[in-house]
Amino acid sequence: MQFDTLPLRYKVCAFALGMVLLTWLFAGLVLFPYQQRMTDIENQLQAERSLVKAAQDFGMIHPEPAKYLKLIDDKLHVLERMLPSEARVSEFLSQSETAAKASGAKLVSLKPGAAMNKNGYQEWSMELVIHGSFFQTMNFVKKIEEGPRFNSVSNIVMQAKPGQLESKLTISIYSFGIPPVQATRLPVAPAK
């Protein structure tokens, strides 16, 4: 069957079907990908505009960036003093001695406990024994808590001794980070 011998209505239907297929092909291969690309570019433009707006807002709030960076740096140093990256017990011992002298109490002993790894930080338990009056002990606790190192007094046990008050304090000190895992030695079998 030849195309020339077909009735006109079949030719028109074939032409219309061809045009519909050509339109769908054009839409599927050119128009829809172009619209998707334009949508992606518009979304990217909106994201860039929001970043620029955030930068402009930050610039309006902090017109002197050097001054703001210094302020942030100072806050970071205070935070590093409160939560050092290493568990330096010697600094806490020095802080405890200074607080004892300032409060008039006598630091008798300091017994460090085990370190516990928490979620991103370490907690060290310390047991301090001090001698002094009730008010000296409370002043000592206040000075320890107000010190540069972040700590928490969790327990105080007071006992009256002849002529003095003995106080046992359980204090937790904190440090940022978790220590690296120490290498463990495997037992070596004797050579045969």
Automatic annotation (TrEMBL):
- What's an example GO BP annotation here? type IV pilus assembly
Question: What Gene3D superfamilies does the database record attribute to this sequence?
Answer: 3.30.70.60
Q: Where is the signal peptide?
A: none
Transmembrane stretches, by residue range? Answer: 12-34
Q: Name one Pfam family in it.
A: PilO
InterPro entries annotated for this entry?
A: PilO, Transl_elong_EF1B/ribsomal_bS6
Cite the entry's keywords alphabetically: Membrane, Transmembrane, Transmembrane helix
Please identify the protein, giving its name as recorded.
Answer: Pilus assembly protein PilO
